[in-house]
Amino acid sequence: MRADVCIVYNEPLPGVFEAAGESIAVSSVLDAVSAVTEALHEKGYSYHPLPVRPGECNDMLRRLSRLNPRVIFNLFEGFDRDPDSEGMVARLLEKTGIAVTGAPSRALTDCINKVKTKSRLRSLGLPTADWHLYEPGTSLQPPSAGLRFPCVVKPLATDASHGLTERSLVSSFHEMCEQVELVHARYAQAALVEEFLPGREFNILVMSPPLRLFSIAEIRYSLPAGKAHLCTYASKWEENDEYYAATQVQCPAHLSAADARMIEGLAARTFAELVGRGYARIDMRADRSGDINILEINPNPDIGPASGAKKEAEASGMSYHDFICEIMAQAWSGQGSVNLSACASVF
Q1: Domain spanning 5-102: CATH 3.40.190.10
Q2: CA 141, CA 58: separation in Å to the nearest integer?
Q3: CATH architecture of the domain with range 126-195
Q4: For residue range 230-288, what is the model confidence (pLDDT) as tens digits?
Q5: Which backbone phi and psi does 345 adopt, to 5 degrees?
Q6: Does the structure show a pLDDT above 70 at 346?
Q7: CATH 3.30.470.20, applies to 201-346
Q8: How many helices (H) and strands (E) does the chain have?
Q9: pTM of this prediction?
């Protein structure tokens, strides 16, 4: 019997993130799978979960051919030690000719690489913090003169705040070198050193087509003096950590109408230029002058029951299950893309 929806996701396996003590984020995909199956069941759709392991992509394609679903609900987050696999698997899914939820493979491939994303933003005249990249095996020289401490050191191609701790905020070249070497050793990838932006921190969920901007969320910190105001791995995933307790999400954020329009305009243009369709979370933070910069773009972000996407959808008046089914229906109805003229009202 043909299923309406096949839910494709990476089966959580031991690997580099477990060795780093960060396995909770990896296994959280199962919470998203459960939420999607509950929503589809409630709405009367038939579904078939389809976990994928490394080396099993051909088997995935054979099973999809046999099941022949109307829609593939793409929850695949990438294989361990292979950040490019998120986009690669999405590209394989697109080639089946079956409608696929979420962002196109191109956006998933480009946006996982933080430097590629920041370079693209700069080329478009969109604001983002200065940065320097340190590849493994290269000598650690001081960053360019334009890059000011304090800085944040993070892995080049991870999401879910992997690799971010309070020690990731560095105030000197010596501290920076320690963290860069840690990223190289622990995550086997390049380290991005990015100027720290000390202002307010926001994110916003965007969907298209049609273009929809959800409620803006603010990340608020109530940490003791001297603690880094960073959305660390512990902030998101470790319930017994002080960072988790002291990191709160306020949604909708308290903003003037002008500030909200400015954030929405930045988000809409960023989505149109770097994602195009599906759904994505745009992370932003204010610099020393109060000007908003784009931190990261997260196509196909976490949509599990503890996610910011759930909070933003509900704050915008959409139930959680309706939000999930809207993602599915968007793919089912066709593969359009947002264009800049459609965003004019929020610029």
Answers
A1: no
A2: 44
A3: 2-Layer Sandwich (3.30)
A4: 999 999 999 999 999 999 999 999 999 999 999 999 999 999 999 999 999 999 999 99
A5: -70, -15
A6: no
A7: yes
A8: 13, 14
A9: 0.93
